[in-house]
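Your task
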Amino acid sequence: MRIAICAVGRLKGSPEGALVADWLTRFDRTGRAIGLGPARVIEVEDRRGGGPAAEAALLAAAIPAGAAVCALDERGAALDSPGFARLIARWRDDGRRDAAFLIGGADGLDPALRARADQILSLGPMVWPHRLVRAMLAEQLYRAATILADGPYHRG
């Protein structure tokens, strides 16, 4: 199952971008043997300043056809890492070819796009900058792959 992180904004040359690239490289290596990957980041940017509704249109266009959709939002379900791994495994085992994780901009995701998601996921009750959310999600994708592959990385 291929993974797409669809996010508002650009991380070009940033420390967060380097973290995302590192974790996704690790995910691709670990996930290959268990039917996960590759992972890619699709960045969108609303240059006209239309807010969450305009961002939602760009994000929606970035979602691969037929993908399982997970919206990251502070009001979503808080899963532990094994629970997140089980979610990904369920989508993979159900025959989903793609999964898309949506990360909004500074004002979050448009409610209509959030409502379209198969899963709404929170990374905790605190609000995180969208740049850090990408890095945290990439690390959790790698962690999920190691859990599913019975690797030693996750010690929880």
